[in-house]
Amino acid sequence: MQKLSIQTIKTTFDFPPYHTNSYLLELKEGIFLFDTGIKNTNTIEYLKKTIETKGKIDGIILSHGHLDHAGCASILADHYNVPIYVSLEEKERIGSNFPERLKIRIEKIRKIAKFFGINNKNLDILEERTNYYKKLLKPIEFCFNIDKLHFSDIEILKLPGHTSGSIGLYFKEDKLLLSGDALLKEGISPFFDPDLLIDSLAIYLQTLINLKNMELTVVLPGHGDKITTPEKIIDTHIKYIEKNQNKIKELIEKNIIISDILEIIFPENQNPLITLSEIIHCLESLRIPILQNLKVLLSE
After folding, report:
1. pLDDT 10s digits, 85-134
2. Structural domain range at position 223
3. pLDDT one-digit tens code per residue, 11-41
4. Count of domains observed in the chain
5. CATH number, domain at 258?
6. Is the peptide bond before 17 cis (omega within 30 degrees of 0)?
């Protein structure tokens, strides 16, 4: 059996989460780059320098389509003349309509926040940064469905929740997972998708449960340090979610308005996309009719 060779490449930028972990994989089938970080000169040059210690790469695999993981994939693919592999669900996120899609996404998040009476300063920051974000991913005109890629010793796992099409690579013999943003050491990572209005937190929770039931020794995440106690980290995340959900349900049943609930549960004004995801998940589970009104608003 070939000895496992995975090199971590950490690239940095000036907004949360401030860095991305990419991974250079030496496999029987060739050398592959897993995630690329944002599109900027420093990231591109650092990745090229690291790749060229191996001579070349044979392909790029994306855990999902967010710009901090796919930003310079197109540039590197053109430079090395190699294919990009991504799940079918993620292709639209990174295609030629990326700038317009990002603009519409921010507008929808604004509508949702207004609908719930939320005045979150982080939403203002998010909107201000939209034009900046547009520069951090070069749209990918052509890529292959991840289902076309096959490895002898690696299982490609669907890990929905952070995004609908998130994937990870599971090295069965080593019980090691490249998780993208599906599992992080610090904090949960469901990412509310206003385009679909999917129950992303519930889906994310199921992904955590699925991971807990796997044989895992080490997880290499998209951000932060490697995870050497995955079951403990997963249990911590699940307990955090359940605690918040129970508290949110209790407050809703007391007729506390949504904007006040957010202040109670998230007093530090955390990521609005995560807080909205948790609130909407709770409304779904309680069968609150107001959510149907929101869906109508977003379809207009």
Report:
1. 999 999 988 988 888 888 887 788 778 878 887 766 666 766 776 777 88
2. 5-299
3. 999 887 899 999 999 999 999 999 999 999 9
4. 1
5. 3.60.15.10
6. yes
